[in-house]
Specification:
The protein is of the alpha+beta class and about 230 residues long. The chain is built from seven helices and six strands, in the order H-H-H-E-H-H-E-H-E-E-E-E-H. Strand 3 (about 170-175) and strand 4 (about 180-185) form a beta hairpin. Helix 6 packs across helix 7 (about 215-225). The two termini are about 15 Å apart.
Length: about 230
């Protein structure tokens, strides 16, 4: 139990690093690059390289988080974290674009206002869409548990079906190929099995209703034994 809690804590920390990097650091560096276009043209190359480097470095916490996902079950918080990061990126970008435009006007430059307004409008539309998506799916994400296994998807599928068969649950299969969804009719449980590279598998268990809690825990326990 102690090891599981430690892994969960480290996983949460790496996810926070990725979230804050995408929500604050990367868009801030991009904003600095935009400001350098009118404030310090000689530094445009350096700030552009810094923006690229900041974006590339986010792969490190992403890889660390994925590695820890193989060791324990965890709440599927990444979709909501990515939404938060996207909101932060949009906010900072909108502010930077408007500020650079105002500074350009103050200096007697032509900021290309029609294009500027189009960019801002597009960003605000994206922001509205993200907020709506978050509002509709936030509670759903909170009901999901995720884990990766170094086993083929066929083995995971068979193990889950065996557990459900032992409990006398009826299952409806949705999807084919690399991603399959098993919907438990009576217990309102949805299991997503997705094949990953190197014969690994991602499993997401969504407990749609409280009546499915026992089934979800049984599946997680059985998969964790192997």
């Amino acid at each position: 139990m102690g090891d599981t809690r430690d892994v969960s804590r480290r996983l949460d920390n790496w996810q926070k690093v990725m979230e804050y990097s995408l929500a604050v650091i990367v868009p801030t560096v991009l904003a600095v690059m935009m400001f350098s276009l009118i404030g310090a043209p000689a530094l445009v190359t350096e700030t552009m390289l810094a923006a690229i480097a900041a974006s590339a470095l986010t792969i490190i916490p992403a890889l660390m988080a994925q590695k820890l996902h193989y060791q324990c079950w965890a709440k599927n918080t990444m979709p909501q974290r990515m939404i938060t990061a996207l909101i932060g990126t949009i906010y900072i970008t909108v502010v930077a674009v408007l500020t650079v435009s105002l500074i350009s006007i103050y200096r007697g430059l032509d900021p290309g206002q029609p294009l500027t307004f189009a960019v801002v409008a597009a960003l605000l539309i994206c922001l509205a869409a993200v907020l709506v998506y978050s509002s509709k799916n936030k509670s759903r994400f909170e009901r999901m548990d995720i884990r990766y296994f170094r086993r083929p998807a066929s083995d995971i599928d068979s193990a889950i079906r065996a557990v459900l068969a032992d409990r006398g649950e009826s299952v409806r299969e949705e999807g084919r190929g690399r991603r399959v969804r098993l919907v438990v009719e009576n217990r309102k449980v949805v299991i997503t099995i997705a094949s990953q590279p190197r014969k690994s598998t991602e499993v997401i268990i969504e407990c749609v209703e409280l009546s499915g809690t026992a089934t979800c825990e049984l599946i997680k326990g059985r998969l964790g034994e192997n």
